[in-house]
Specification:
This protein has 859 residues and is an alpha+beta fold. The chain is 44% helix and 20% strand.
Length: 859
Amino acid sequence: MPGENLSRDEARERAALLSVDGYDVSLDVRSAVGEGEGGPRTFRSVTTIRFRCSEPGASSFADLIAPGVTAVTLNGKDLDPGEVFDGTRIVLEDLAAENELVVDAQCAYSRTGEGLHRFVDPEDGEVYLYTQYEPADSRRVFANFEQPDLKAPFRFEVQAPKGWTVWSNGTGEQADGVWRFAETKPISTYITCVVAGPYHYVTDSYSRTFPDGTTLDIPLGAMCRKGLAPYFDADDVFLVTKQGLDFFHEHFDYPYPFGKYDQAFVPEYNLGAMENPGLVTFREEYIFRGKVTQASYEARANVILHEMAHMWFGDLVTMVWWDDLWLKESFADFMGTFANVGATRFENAWTTFANRRKAWAYRADQLPSTHPITADIRDLQDAKLNFDGITYAKGASVLKQLVAYVGQDAFLEGARRYFKRNAYGNTRLGDLLSVLAETSGRDMSAWARKWLQTAGVNSLTPQVLLAADGRIAELAVVQEAAESHPELRPHRVAIGLYGRTAEGALERYARVEADVDGPRTVIAELAGAEAPELVLVNDDDLTYCKIRFDDTSLATLRDHLGALTDPLARALCWSALWNLTRDALLPARDFVGLVLRFAGRESDIGVLQMLQAWAESALVHYVAPAWRETAERLLSEGALRELRQAEPGSEHQLAWARFFASTASDGSDFQLLQELLAGTTTIDGLDVDQELRWAFLEPLAAHGAADESALAAELARDDTASGKRHQVRCLAARPSAAVKAQAWAQVVESEALSNALVEATIAGFAQPSQRDLLTPYAEKYFQVIARVWEDRSIQIGMDVVRGLYPSYQDSPQTLEATDAWLAAHADAPPALRRLVLEARDDLARALRGQECDAAAITG
């Protein structure tokens, strides 16, 4: 991987020297089918690049990662590939003012989801291809200048096997087995795209007439593997797509600029989705093979709208370098929820955002690797790791705060001016701040310094002083920050006062919006108000902060959390309680108790599923080891009780069924799961479909109650790509030393598995119930990670370093081993050290949580 890295300084130098007029890329992927020869399976890639050089006579380089190069021609002169190509770069010397580079290469199909990924469907043997590039993997498919600020128009042509269909960013036509695509607008290399194979393809159309009388017609398409076609609800995908296009046209005042709008759901995808203009790619898990809750449909809609927002934020206007990744990802994350609430049936999506997305941000912002939203990205490895909770969820949260700060109208008018001034260009932070300053009249530089250029999360705690008459004499908000990131920020917040009604409901009776700044802010407007039972700072979730509670409020939540009637307020309180647990300020057993007592009353299915995930995390990481078995039993008993009480056929019933399986802890639990699988026992309304069958089988396999033959029989029942991933995970989950040794070898010592099967194997290997069985692998982990990072692709390296960290060996000895590795590998790649530091921090946090929980017994 180090030879593949590109530094920011190199990119700056090249951008100052070169400008690109256009690409012609010809791919021959007929080799994707049939028997492969020895060595990597390859395809022919011929690229012609027309570019200018501001300093004739200067030298530069093009990017290409390929097993071999047949020919290189620069300005009509043949160059020796052995001299100019080193496996990652092509040296270009003595450049003219105007240049033409032609590279004929043999590029490798990918099995890691990077570059041109080749997938063979085990169900029918069909081959499917798709590309995935961000941040810098288009160079695995064609020669180019791989950096976002060297935009250019692209023309693609693809020679494909007979019977295939091929798609790219532009519209295509086929003649004599060759697909030729219309030239794109100027775009960056990382958002070019090719999808090819016998995909199931559905079409629709979108039309909009603008106030000036012009009409925009957009052909719509959606595709998936043939094996998933029976489950493909393309009508709902198109519905959300059209709602999103209407919403963004109305708010952005800039017509969708990229012609058609295809959406491809592809196998073995590493990401949620990718915003390639005209051809968005998604992980195929967004096509649901079994019954799922509305939270899954909401999440899919959010992703569709997130990627659509990128057509403007990211594709039309692109950051110069990955430092300003937030200019596209933070905006798309915010706009995904903004549009979901404003345009679709998911009107409560801000509740999901507050409960789920911000939890991701809070975790990331407290890691040692936290960084400002505008990050310092030295190279491509840094860029790869910066697709994180800071860039996405914190950035979106800060934009929500910005909307409250400048006003929605000023914010959207700023976006409209930003698009018109910078269309098809590249921007930096200042370009956006300048238009927002124009439209809002606010000093955006000071706001940016506080919110975008510093790291860390503030906590806000109410202080309530009561007068003799029992009313509020003074209510203040105390702001605190971690010593490592001491910045105190200006917050626009809503403060809600809550009390119980005569019927016992906990409801808001007063609310004010205020600017909180500095260590302590008095909220004068609330003086004289009736004494509250609950003070909710950041009511309505306007800012990005950790909410804390005064003693009275915390006591109210312990007894009456389920009586809180407002779904968003309830979600905010749950999130705050989880942050207290993670910060070792609330014993994990108390959080588990709150879930057992109140989660059954939770109406919002997305919040319920998040609570279940947090409760399981509390069990695995934060509960004192001596109480772990008791907590597991209490959770499984509570889950079964709620499962039996849930409305038959409801999504709540499904959520509790899955949670019961994940917490099953003894013989009676396993017997019930087996009987549900066999059909000898039923629960009214619960449809044990194929996906739920696999959810039941994993805990059975992990506890030795489902052997290899049972898993083979299930695969025969579900002989599909999805079934194979489930089976691989279940096989690796079995409680056997031989099984663990085999799984370890398959992931660490071999490259035979695809990215999806690596992920499944790691998930099965690392079972929290098998701590003793996994003990030998703690030492092995530190012996191999440097080699894995050097030898494997960055995606597989990230999967191994994150997924195999011995977090279940939760002891000070594991921390010491981690520190020893860090001390001995001070010169390791910064991205690798970052991953290890993050894992160490999670473990240290878990140990503090366990100490807090243990103290609750003796305290």
